[in-house]
Structures are given as C-alpha cells and as structure tokens.
Amino acid sequence: MENVVVLLGWKEGEGLDPKQMKAFLSTNVSPTNEKILSYYSKRWAVETYFRTAKVYLAMDRYQVRSTQAIERYLTLLMIVSVCCIYDSRGSLTDGLLHYRSLKKQCMIEYIYYLAQSGATLAQI
C-alpha cells in the first residue's frame, strides 16, 4: 500500500515479543506518530462500546430499514448504556449484568407470589 504509516508499540523493557506488540495502521500520513496514537486511544473507547453493544444488547441482531428507525434504535441503546454506566458507576458491562440479575430476581419473585396465591403452573 502506498501512503501508509505502520506504528509498532510495546512496553518498555519487554523486548520485541510479538505477542506483546501492538500495531497501528494509518492511511493518513500527515499527522505525527504521537497524534496518530492519540487518535487510536480515543477511538478505542468507541470500538469497545460497539463491541459491548453487539454482545450484550444484540445490536448486531436487530434489523431496521429506515433512517428514522435506526436513529431511534441507537438512541435507545445509548439511553440504556448511560443508565447502566450511571448505575454501576462507570462500567457498562457491570451495569448490564446488574440489571439482568435484577430482572431474574423479579421474575422469580413474581412466580413465587403467584404460586403462593394458588396459581397453577399452567396459569403461571
């Protein structure tokens, strides 16, 4: 490829172990090495958010066709994310796991109260 910058990074003192090395590729050759790494460090938070949204919020399995539907869906994902991050004081994954645990607990309580009131298994 022409006009590409490849930056290789590793922790100081660990030698050139390929398993510890990180590689960064940029097709924009004008910024300095430090600026390219700065862009990647900011982008990493975005990448991890979308990975978490795909794994835990089924973002990759939901299909919509219109721009408006996509915007609404992404807005809902962002609201859920903010609530989970706020509730867990900083971790989206911890917040999601907490809410899933609460959901299971509520479901068990609901089934318990129905059973206590004499509901049959078919009714539950």
UniProtKB/TrEMBL annotation:
Q: Which GO terms describe its biological process?
A: DNA transposition
UniProt-recorded Gene Ontology molecular function terms: DNA binding; transposase activity
Q: Which Pfam families match?
A: DDE_Tnp_1 (PF01609)
**Where does the UniProt annotation place the signal sequence?**
none
Transposase IS4-like domain sequence ranges: 24-82
Q: What positions belong to coiled-coil segments?
A: none
The name under which this protein is listed is: Transposase
Q: Which organism is it from?
A: Paenibacillus roseus
User: Which lineage is the organism of this entry classified under, starting from the top rank?
Assistant: Bacteria, Bacillati, Bacillota, Bacilli, Bacillales
